[in-house]
Design a protein that fits this description.
Keywords: Amino-acid biosynthesis, Branched-chain amino acid biosynthesis
Shape: elongated
CATH architecture of the largest domain: 2-Layer Sandwich
Catalytic activity: 2 pyruvate + H(+) = (2S)-2-acetolactate + CO2
Number of domains: 2
Radius of gyration: 22 Å
Distance between the termini: 64 Å
Helix content: 25-40%
Order of helices and strands: HEHEEHEEHEEHEE
Organism: Rhodothermus profundi
Protein name: acetolactate synthase
Enzyme class: transferase
Structural class: alpha+beta
Number of helices: 5
CATH topology of the largest domain: Alpha-Beta Plaits
Number of strands: 9
Largest sheet: 5 strands, antiparallel
Length: about 210
């Protein structure tokens, strides 16, 4: 006789979904890719503390980019990670507790713009050169270096565009690929660092 599935109240269902837990026994947890933006004080060791956090907690870290903002005392970090809602919630809480952190936001829950830079070196011959150049033109890739048998392209765009270009170049013989990792910014009229968005105004807190 098959055991009956436990009945869950609406509150239990909401709580489980928020935590990323399966609703039924044996049901796999939903894992998604998340893009997280972090504002940090521009201090020595800030990046190391973030990387050590992911390593110590066993969080998956796909890419991380960091650079100075228009305020030289503040750095902006973009992190790409994967996990269920429960894991991502832990990531956000742990990042927020770091001494250098000014603000943390999971951009995946809103509309945002993302870009990545890629340098790709590929072999070419007289027979394949035209096809390679045509493909690069479609992706708006720019030749930044050329030798008698290789070309190096510069390409910017969303991660999906970068990965599609790499896939099409692979049959020609890719020699090297260097990717910057994702940078992202939410679509809005305000800013984290100005009074235009009161909810994210840091100037009064610092």
């Amino acid at each position: 006789m098959q055991a009956e599935m436990p009945m869950l109240t609406p509150q239990q269902i909401l709580r489980k979904r928020k935590a990323g837990e399966p609703l039924l026994p044996g049901e796999p947890e939903q894992v998604h890719r998340h893009t997280i933006a972090v504002l940090l004080e521009n201090t020595i060791g800030a990046l190391i503390r973030v990387v050590n956090l992911f390593s110590a907690r066993g969080f998956n870290l796909e890419s991380v980019t960091v650079g100075e903002t228009d305020d030289p005392t503040v750095s902006r970090m973009t992190i790409v990670t994967t996990g269920n809602d429960r894991i991502i919630g832990q990531v956000l809480r742990q990042l927020d507790r770091l001494i250098d952190t000014l603000h943390v936001e999971d951009l995946s829950g809103s509309s945002f713009v993302e870009r990545e830079l890629c340098l790709l070196k590929v072999r070419y011959t007289n027979e394949t050169r035209a096809a390679i150049m045509d493909t690069a033109e479609i992706f708006r890739g720019k030749v930044v270096d050329i030798t008698p048998d290789t070309m190096t392209f510069e390409l910017t765009g969303p991660t999906s565009k970068i990965e599609a270009f790499i896939k099409l170049m692979r049959p020609h013989g890719i020699l090297e690929v260097a990717r910057s990792g994702r940078v992202a910014m939410r679509r809005s009229s305000g800013s984290w660092l100005t009074h235009e968005d009161p909810a994210l105004n840091l100037s009064a807190e610092r």
